[in-house]
Specification:
By secondary structure, the chain is α+β, with helices and mostly antiparallel strands. The protein has one domain: Aminopeptidase (3-Layer(aba) Sandwich), CATH 3.40.630. It has two helices and four strands. A hairpin with a 5-residue loop joins strand 1 and strand 2. The chain is globular and about 55 Å long.
């Protein structure tokens, strides 16, 4: 929370009827470039497949738009996450490839 450009108005949480945090989305907003990054997004495993991650992301994206953002980005590393983001309108535009070298081959 002490890291620039943290903005608490872009923290979104969905609570269960008994007050438990069950889904959340935080957006990091770059005002100069009008771009927001959704990260992290999460749902308690007991509450998955109920549309909560989608709902909390949409709430956060609306708040981001109200701040003047023109673009939002996500990074997904699992098929489920990618499907979630596609379901709320994100489109793939880049792909990251990771490389590593084992220590015993140096």
């Amino acid at each position: 929370m002490n890291t620039y450009p943290y903005d608490s108005s872009l923290d979104w949480v969905i609570e269960s009827p008994d007050g438990e945090f069950v889904a959340s989305c935080l957006i990091w907003f770059d005002e100069d470039n009008k771009v927001g990054l959704l990260e992290p997004v999460g749902t308690d495993p007991r509450f998955r497949r109920m549309g909560l991650a989608s709902s909390v992301c949409k709430l956060a994206l609306n708040a981001l738009s109200d701040k003047g953002a023109k673009t939002a980005v996500v990074v997904c590393t699992s098929l489920d996450a990618c499907e979630l983001y596609k379901s709320i309108g994100f489109e793939q535009f880049a792909q990251t490839k990771s490389f590593h070298r084992l220590k015993n081959t140096l």
